[in-house]
Amino acid sequence: MSNLAQVMGKLGELVRFHRKKAGLTQIQLADLAGVGKSTVYDIEKGKATVQIDNLFAVLTAMNISIQFSGPLNAAFERWYATQTSDQ
Amino acid sequence: MSNLAQVMGKLGELVRFHRKKAGLTQIQLADLAGVGKSTVYDIEKGKATVQIDNLFAVLTAMNISIQFSGPLNAAFERWYATQTSDQ
DNA sequence: TCAATATCACTGCCTTAGCAGTAAAATATT
DNA sequence: AATATTTTACTGCTAAGGCAGTGATATTGA
């Protein structure tokens, strides 16, 4: 599960799965997320060149969260906390 | 941490943090990931409209993984396993 | 301090993502 | 089976993402 096509394909299915269970059509989800219907269609189809703001909008509408983690995550979180709390 | 600008801002910092620790310049990371230098710059700046294929390439180069999870994740994983194993 | 390196922020060019509209194909409902 | 709804897969259009190149502004190191 490290190649792009696989990841996006599965993500598309994840979106579709949630949408269906929520009883929404692609157009309803598109309106809810504030994107075009083609974008929802493309995401569910696994298109790899969608822009993250649009993807994020659709995921948020379906209560799907994104998480990023790298090998230096712990150190980063510590450092990032100081950057954001100090004014 | 649910708004887009915040998420992308933090992700940009995460990338930069990993890149610096790896001792790479933006151009070296760009070449490594197979994207343009402007794209690395934009990601680190927190640009929200980058395309996921480019983002994914940069994250992969830095060993940063993405994970998606929604409320129906368990059910989805069960269903998805059947879809992918059955030929 | 001074020089080398890196980053920033802008440019013009080309490509294409996103959009609504549409008709055909596939699903679902009665 | 017949009908309604939804999804698919295309269209042309417009806006902007990605790119390399560039000079100005940091940042780093000797």
What is the CATH first-level class name of chain A?
Mainly Alpha
Report the span from N to C terminus of chain A: 40 Å
Mean pLDDT of chain A: 96
Number of domains of chain A: 1
- Sheet of most strands of chain A: none
Structural class of chain A: mainly alpha
Subunit organisation of the chains: homodimer
Please mark out the parts of chain A with pLDDT under 50 across 5 or more consecutive residues, or reply none. none
| String of helices and strands of chain A | HHHHEH
Percent helix range of chain A? 55-70%
The counted number of beta strands of chain A is 1
Radius of gyration of chain A: 16 Å
What's the CATH topology name of chain A? 434 Repressor (Amino-terminal Domain)
Walk me through the structure.
The structure is a homodimer of 87-residue chains. The mean pLDDT of chain A is 96. Chain A has five helices and one strand. Chain A is mainly alpha-helical. Chain A is elongated and about 45 Å long. Chain A has a single domain, classed as Orthogonal Bundle (434 Repressor (Amino-terminal Domain)). In chain A, helix 1 crosses helix 3, helix 2 crosses helix 3 and helix 2 crosses helix 4. Chains A and B meet through helix 1, helix 4, strand 1 and helix 5 of A and helix 1, helix 4, strand 1 and helix 5 of B. Strand 1 of chain A pairs antiparallel with strand 1 of chain B. Chain A binds a DNA duplex (30 and 30 nucleotides) through helix 3.
